[in-house]
Amino acid sequence: MGLIPRILQTWRRPGTTVRGLTGLPDAALLALLIGTMALYFVAQWPAHARAAALDPSVPLNARLGGALLATLFLMPLIVMALAGIVHLAARLLGTGLSGHDSRLALIWALAAAAPLMLLTGLAQGLAGPGPALTLLRIATGAAFLLFWGAGLRALAQGAKARA
Question: For residue 130, which phi and psi values (nearest 5 degrees)?
Answer without folding.
Answer: 160, -175
